[in-house]
Amino acid sequence: MADFVGAVDQGTTSTRFMIFDHGGNEVGRHQLEHEQILPQAGWVEHNPLEIWERTQTVIQTAMNARGLTASDLAALGITNQRETTVVWNRRTGRPYYNAIVWQDTRTDRIASALEREGKGDVIRRKAGLPPATYFSGGKIRWILENVDGVREAAERGEAVFGNTDTWLLWNLTGGVEGGVHVTDPTNASRTMLMNLETLDWDDELLSFFDIPRAMLPRIRPSSDPRSYGSTVQHGPFTGPVPLTGDLGDQQAATVGQVCFAPGEGKNTYGTGNFMLLNTGTEIVRSKAGLLTTVCYQFGDEAAVYALEGSIAVTGSAVQWLRDQLKIITSAAQSEILASQVEDNGGVYFVPAFSGLFAPYWRSDARGAIVGLSRFNTDAHIARATLESICYQSRDVAEAMEQDSGVHLECLKVDGGVTVNDLCMQLQADILGVPVSRPVVAETTALGAAYAAGLAVGFWKNTDELRQNWNESRRWQPGWSAEQRENGYARWKKAVQRTLDWVDVG
Ligand SMILES: Nc1ncnc2c1ncn2[C@@H]1O[C@H](COP(=O)(O)OP(=O)(O)O)[C@@H](O)[C@H]1O
Ligand SMILES: O=P(O)(O)OC[C@H](O)CO
Q: Which residue ranges traverse the bilayer (predicted)?
């Protein structure tokens, strides 16, 4: 068998290709950012053709740098930013519209109408999600309603939908020349269109959004030796590589962190934050504002579910300090600036740029910096930004405990922000439990590689994968209980100040 497994990680800010060996060690990678298209306030788009072009380049560059060819890869996995919606013509391969990104809030009226019409509870029960701008269903509907000719083409089965996993799988397997139109249950569970129990598209949910079934991909297990086909010769690989794994990126990180038992979970710190807790084969319905989602489905085994706390703005608040406020010149500088002060100086920043996701689900919220006095400096704002990442994580951790009854003993973390030592120390202080980061920080790509490798026997089972997990760093809580609870009470007060700010109809 070939020595390596490859994984494409198509994220919100960049696309990377990574190559892993049997020990789960990284042996090669390349990464490229793509343009964030911001046509108006609240709208966020990506160009699907640019994403496909970047995907080919990162694959070719990483493979060439290691002198590898298609036959060196036992399998290929895909993982992706979830919810982001592409609709394209399967005859021409051209997208009808830019990809509408998960952070985009243009569908707030569609979401609030669903609630007003009493459909919200059905969506919560069947799909495990509250009606919100975040998910794909409203985005597909927006394209059907606003782009000429798409509805008719969709009814003929010519205009098809996919998240970026499906878009890349279709292109990698031949595109207009017979590309495979497929997704997995972790991605499908983010559309508001899939029934969590049947793991299939649900006619009632489709009718709520008026979406023709013909435009939707087949849903196949996340790790599957048969359904996804192989890469074609004229693509970036110049030969066939079996495509055998597909997972949404946060579920992939959960797999990469080897959270295979109920009660095991992780928190990923990227553009946003996503805390997932494995609940086993049981569908746990949240009463505390979390999502119920599919965690993974491996081959013929029963699907495993998770509770998820999704936070829209965490690492992107650091980008905002850099790009809009310009008080830092790099993300890493946020740590240096925030370290210049001993505490937040009374300042709390709630970065509700896209409203508030879990556990609040308030699209009428907008960002606020509160508690300012003349004493405060840019260093307090930087510190409040890092604290906002940690307080938002505490909000979802509390909801997680309430829903699952599982008390967090230690938080496994990963993602771009976790290189920030101060932020991770603040996380331990604010949560009151240790925070632990693994040696392989690229858990998202690793999880997709694991799903692909399990399907072809490159790894025998999940026990073998557990052997690959090792801790690199642990942060212990330092604050007193009083300091922790006082800070959290202030945070909750600050959150209240952001609510009911915009009229969402
Ligand atoms: N040293 C740092 N301190 C704080 N945030 C950081 C640091 N380095 C990177 N980030 C943030 O991490 C995010 C990128 O993380 P990554 O895991 O690559 O995200 P994604 O998968 O969402 O594209 C960016 O939003 C960036 O601002
Ligand atoms: O691309 P990321 O890492 O920001 O992840 C985005 C999430 O999948 C959105 O649900």
A: none
Tell me the pLDDT tens digit for each residue of 437-484: 999 888 999 999 999 999 999 999 999 999 999 999 999 999 999 999
With a threshold of 0.90, tell me whether the complex ipTM lies above it.
yes
Q: Which ligand 2 atom sits closest to the C-alpha of 310? A: 10
State pLDDT tens for residues 371-416.
999 999 999 999 999 999 999 999 999 999 999 888 888 999 999 9
Structure tokens belonging to residue 17: 């290709």
CA dihedral 99, 104, 110, 112 (to 10 degrees): 160
Residue 219 C-beta-side C-alpha neighbours within 13 Å: 23
**Ligand 2, CB cutoff 6 Å, lining residues:** 11-12, 81-83, 102, 248-250, 270-272, 310
Paired tokens of 320: 């905002």
CB distance 270 to ligand 1 below 6 Å: yes
Closest CA to 350 of 318, 389, 293, 376: 389
| 392 is annotated as contributing to ligand binding | no
| CA pair distance 404, 206, nearest whole angstrom | 30
